[in-house]
Amino acid sequence: MMPPVVTILGGGISGLSAAYYLARLAPQIHIRLLEATDHVGGWIKSEKVNDKVLFEAGPRTLRPKGTGGAILLDMLKDLHLDQHIVSVPKKHPSAQHRYIEYKGQINQLPSGLSDLLFNSPPIMDSVMGAIMKEPFQPCPNHVTDESLYDFIQRRFNSQVALNLIGALAHGVYAGDCKQLSVQSTFPLLAACEQKYGSVVKGMMRGGVSLDTTKELALAAQCEARYPIWQHEMQNASVIGLQPGLAALPLALRRFLMDQPNVDLLTRQPVTLLESSSSSSSSLITTQSGEKYESHHVISALPSHILASILPPSSSLPHLTHNPRVDVAVVNLAYKKDDANTQLDGFGFLTPHRDTGSRVPGVLGVIFDSNSMGIQDKDMVRFTAMIGGSDWDLAFGNLKEEKEVATQALALAQQAMSTCLGVDASPTYHQAHVLRQCLPQYLVGHSKRMQELHLALQQRMCLSVTGASYLGVSVPDCVKHSRLLVEDLLEIGALGNQSSVVTGLEKTMISPW
Ligand SMILES: Cc1cc2nc3c(=O)[nH]c(=O)nc-3n(C[C@H](O)[C@H](O)[C@H](O)COP(=O)(O)OP(=O)(O)OC[C@H]3O[C@@H](n4cnc5c(N)ncnc54)[C@H](O)[C@@H]3O)c2cc1C
Asked: Ligand 1: distance of its center to the CA of 12 in Å?
């Protein structure tokens, strides 16, 4: 019997991870990965400017904690990238010091209770009172999803919602806390209310585990392989890779190219995914007219792109419901003496636009040299993230990519001057405009994912993974691709018409 052929669509971190785990766990299977561009890694892009300064245009730091962290660390170890890991200890200033721009001033968030009581900046006015009252706030009779803003405003107050949670939504999703779903973006908050009747009580009792038994078992397996190392790494606040995060997709690519059962094909934008005439397999067409038959397809594409390649007769629900935001990423490098900010934290975020930020449209500025603090001796690097849900504030009607990039650089420098007092021109800079880069999980996302799961169950040989569905972080993407592959193999769903794995099984056992 011919071994089944599995085709993975998209060579971002989700698609590469799916291919990697399939290649490791099922060497008998023929794996094909189709990527539209000429590089792999999707939004992960590290560039060295002048052979000197490292700029990350996309993600830069990874959370090593939790089930996603354990699985990601295991992958890094197996790819021999552990020697390149840079870890930031929890006691490091960049882990302790978090800043929010508030009314034109940088406010340092308290890093402990005594700080909160005796050293609170203006942004924390009313926070202490709201924390004290929160355990006594009533809980709703029915569990329904709501926006992050509505949830926090109900449990704490509107200042906490706009200033603190608004800033967090900027930092993680480049999004608007008034639009994002609390259940899907910060599920721990909603779970604490549900289990303990209070976020504060829930946090004081160590939170709520949102991981499935399978996720916990997999993480435990990873931890057991290198227990001391895993423990040490998971204790870091964040980790990164010394040559830049792109070292991860490059290592995955190298591994995959070395496998005799893997075809990794770049410059192959997929334009159509349909059932083949025998209907026990799928037929994939690319822009150049190539056709590939496949027993099983794993889509690691952003969901709106998956929607665009399905024929109308086999469309799936909700794939285009969530918008995706555009973000302009501006990397700046200054000579050390030109940018002495006196701040030694991770960076600063801006609150929700309703508080009237002094740098409208700027979501935050990361202090790259501090947050990792190793790559360069005489330069200081920063990255400004601009746009997202505040795109119109930053760029108005500008359409041309060049105009947007120019405006982004101007806004980044304005933020450096207004908030950090850095007026010098950067020695090196670059601006990337990332279109539709971050999905916004709108209110009701988890319910819609359940419905998508049920619809996919009728499709048999299609599974999904990637940032569109169950988490946007790199560790989440890696974890969900691994879980998908393990489930497909365990249940024997590859090339088999009688069992189905969609990749969204978790939605059916979520706490909601
Ligand atoms: C600016 C920014 C900063 C971030 N910072 C962090 C961070 O610090 N830490 C963190 O954990 N996460 C961070 N994230 C989130 C994380 O980087 C992404 O969510 C994650 O990389 C998404 O990976 P993915 O593989 O699911 O999707 P993508 O990276 O979008 O990959 C999809 C792939 O599919 C390909 N493709 C598209 N259309 C087709 C087609 N028709 N045919 C074939 N291939 C196609 C694309 O070219 C791409 O390679 C950040 C994201 C952004 C944008």
From this structure: 5
